[in-house]
Amino acid sequence: MEEELKCPNSSSEKRYFPESLDSSDGDEEGVLACEDLELNPFDGLPYSSRYYKLLKEREDLPIWKEKYSFMENLLQNQIVIISGDAKCGKSSQVPQWCAEYCLSIHYQHGSVICTQVHKQTAVQLALRVADEMDVNIGHEVGYVIPFENCCTSETILRYCTDDMLQREMMSNPFLGSYGVIILDDIHERSIATDVLLGLLKDVLLARPELKLIINSSPHLISKLSSYYGNSPLLEVKNKHPVEVVYLSGAQKDSFESILRLIFEIHHSGEKGDIVVFLACEQDIEKAYEIVYQEGSKLNPDLGELVVVPLYPKEKCTLLKPIDETEKRCQVYQRRVVLTTSSGESLIWSNSVKFVIDVGVERRKVYSPRIRADSLVMQPISQSQAEIRKQILGSSPSGKLFCLYTEEFASKDMKPLQPAEMQEANLTSMVLFLKRIDIAGLGHCDFINRPAPESLMQALEDLDYLAALDNDGNLSEFGIIMSEFPLDPQLSKSILASCEFDCVDEMLTIAAMVTAPNCFSHLPPGAEEAALTCWKTFLHPEGDHFTLINIYKAYQDTTLNAASEHCVEKWCHDYFLNCSALRMADVIRAELLEIIKRIELPYAEPAFGSQENTLNIKKALLSGYFMQIARDVDGSGNYLMLTHKQVAQLHPLSSYSITKKMPEWVLFHKFSISENNYIRITSEISPELFVQLAPQYYFSNLPSSESKDILQQVMDHLSPISAMNKEQKICEKCPETTEQRCTVQ
């Protein structure tokens, strides 16, 4: 086996089995001598001294002792499953070993790709692994995340988010450019990962030379083993035991218990950082304010308390995980990291000695019946609780404080966290699978079947959006929609904007609603000043138009600013999120590139004219006719057109700020929670809705006063107008679809 894995460019086997290096002699001369003799087979250059320093750190990882066994299994099997605790090293080391395998066979079957659920993790792993391999990031090792590609055609090992590998299958169904595919963090059960698990079964049959590595937490292993048959399994455990303290009674007032624990630990003088797992992002913001304010009053002799909010769902900033190499001040600093579920994969530092776990989370659960998300507070799973414990397993004397009882953990917590596929809107997934069906990979053997009602609702929505033909296959319109890495409703609005001559404006709206919230988190006491600044951007026609104003102001500032610092200062002065606006700029550029690539018509911008305003609303309605609400009592209580839920406008809506409540609005987001807010709203007229909503969608609406009003509007239309509308708008008609937007 060692002969098979020997590097063709080196006479030494040590490159592929670094454990055979004599690391007992740590003198500098030995390192320099080795450095002179040994070349890096990936770039042909001598190894740097940093490579050998990092190599010793790698050898201390729990996964390292399994290297020989892994390489042997990789040679002899098509699928290898790795069961590893958090921070055992599987996400950084296994891809490097796979790169060595591909190099040893001269990349005849392709390179290595490793998926991650979170884009922050993909970027940080690529940076770390490039450093460990002593190569350049963006060349031999790279990453691909939504709207950012840091790879070349010569990249040997790339990290990517699971949704990016899924999208790659649209143009490369059998993933022929890869010899090894690694699916990491399977236990997080994202939709894209579950889809890849199913589709790769067929790809493996079609490509016997392809290797698949599956990394997961131990809790999911039995399910994976039965799903993929008799595949070899490697198990890796962390080194150190963890002390677990259950605090009965803390659940009743968990927030107060968390704060008390943080300050008790800090006063104890025990060294080490603290990670706190909270239920939701609102709790992060609340805890941040309190700990920040109270921490500034502490005795400076105890050291500085540095509060680090970590938002796993944040899409704009690549949040840097806690890094042991960060320089500390001379005064001792203790970091308090505040995060939520899914933040486990972002905690890399061995300096974490304390974890506080509330044991509950706020999950977003989609209801296909009402086409809306509900925010539900529920216990975390036993697997999530175990992963939080494993964060401490790589350092001795770690302590986990559970703000719940052992009985709660055994009785109320389910063994595994629910798959996202069973709780989310599946319209985008079904559109992708319909597109893949063109390549003969439409059948997907899911590890957990999605709910039939969710699939039916997704198919119904795609039918309403004219993405399907009369046989249930993708229409030409649907194929074009699938080219955009967006929600299908947003893709439909962009395509409709081609007809209504407002593509430029629609791309800006699409970029701004896809990027994170452009409004900054406000520090205490800054609300009034922020509202004064934001009022300068308000547009009387609604929030979608306000977003265009903000983006145009940001663009003008960027063009006229002397430096990037000036742009950041402008954003800070106006309480805007600079990184979110940068991301919107990147997203918009990619969407424009897609428009040009498939040669869709692109009109000159005309923002501000009355005709353009009407056209933007038409384009928005073409995609979001299923998200309409009406103010039923004139006081801002909006009843959804599709169900009986009542909601209010978000406090940051332009209408809330100006106190002018339109009767009919189109909205972008709605979640059922304690505050039933509809977000990003713009006024529409019932006449416009009747003209643009598909007739068969309108006929399927439940009976309501709002529907009766719309029916009256429809009845008042002249027969000629009704006939013209039917010919022009009916999205069931293939001929009409072709007229509205075709690939040139």
From TrEMBL:
Region listing for Disordered, in residue ranges: 1-27
GO molecular function, one term: ATP binding
CDD domains: DEXHc_DHX32, SF2_C_RHA
EC number: 3.6.4.13
Keywords: Acetylation, ATP-binding, Helicase, Hydrolase, Mitochondrion, Nucleotide-binding, Nucleus
Location(s), subcellular: Mitochondrion; Nucleus
Reactions catalysed: ATP + H2O = ADP + phosphate + H(+)
The UniProt record lists the keyword Secreted: no
Cross-referenced SUPFAM superfamilies: P-loop containing nucleoside triphosphate hydrolases
Protein family membership: Belongs to the DEAD box helicase family. DEAH subfamily.
Protein name as it appears in the record: Putative pre-mRNA-splicing factor ATP-dependent RNA helicase DHX32
Lineage: Eukaryota, Metazoa, Chordata, Craniata, Vertebrata
